[in-house]
Amino acid sequence: MRHKESATKKPRRKFKESFPFYRLLPNIITITALCFGLTAIKYGLEGNWEQSLLFLIISAFLDGMDGRIARYLNVTSDFGANLDSLADFIDFGIAPALIIYMWALTDLQIKALGWGVVLIFAICGAMRLARFNVGLKSPQSSIQKQFFTGVPIPIGGILAIVPMMISFEFPAINFVKYPEFNIVYLLSIAVAMVSKLPTFAIKNIHISKENVKLVLASIGVLIVFLIVKPWITIIIFCLLYIVSIPISVVVFYKKTKEKQII
């Protein structure tokens, strides 16, 4: 009788493991950034250039937030890192090049040349991401942690659309619309992304407690300028970044030399 009861007894249900919703927040931000990047392509296809760039810039802002939020919440994962890389490739390796192609490179007599530039830009972006992902698993010195190797792909994607922003604010500057100029410009950014140039890593910049109020006030002023004159503000920041590249090279090799002497 007991044997019959044990045979008919149903096994206990195992509850599936659960976790707090906030752990999904970085991935949700990454997916949102991907949607904005794809929507930027959609507006580019429609010839709505300003709307296209706006969505791309929002995508870049969200891309800068997901990793930081993941580290702050201590919810980093291999899945999130790979999802972020795939989203970055589409948002900044494909979308900017496609938008520039539709904006300026379709007027070329040899249309294959313009499309070839798009392919080169995308390939260099993929290589930049692959090298970055491999570098995350490699040991780095304290100096190497302060610099990126080459221009990061999100920054490269924003730099690629600077000619369009210039044309919005300064219509009299015609050369930024020339296909030849955009070909050289896009290829230069592509090379910079896969180069070994040391560039400043903004995430490793530290602020002293005495300067916190000043930094917050400066950010407030920056937001005002972004609202009032968004294109000019972003152009200025992009130019400052370009100027910072040779400075970062000098600082990197100077620190490396000092460490070798010590």
Account of the 3D structure:
This protein is an all-alpha fold. The protein has a single domain, classed as Up-down Bundle (Four Helix Bundle (Hemerythrin (Met), subunit A)). Helix content is 71%, strand content 2%. It has ten helices and two strands; from the N terminus they run H-H-H-H-H-E-H-H-H-E-H-H. The protein has a two-stranded antiparallel ribbon. Helix 3 packs antiparallel against helix 4 and helix 9 (212-228) packs antiparallel against helix 10. The longest helix is centred in the last third of the chain and has 32 residues, at 230-261.
Write the layout of secondary structure elements.
Layout: H1 2-8, H2 25-45, H3 49-73, H4 78-104, H5 111-136, E1 147-149, H6 153-160, H7 162-169, H8 179-194, E2 198-200, H9 212-228, H10 230-261
Antiparallel strand pairs: 1-2
Helix pairs in contact: 2-3, 2-4, 3-4, 4-5, 4-6, 5-8, 6-8, 7-10, 9-10
Q: Can you give keywords for this protein?
A:
262 residues; mainly alpha; Four Helix Bundle (Hemerythrin (Met), subunit A); 2 strands; globular
The gist of it:
By secondary structure, this protein is an all-alpha fold.
CATH-defined fold name: Four Helix Bundle (Hemerythrin (Met), subunit A)
How large is the count of helical segments?
10
Strand percentage lies at under 5%
Structural class: mainly alpha
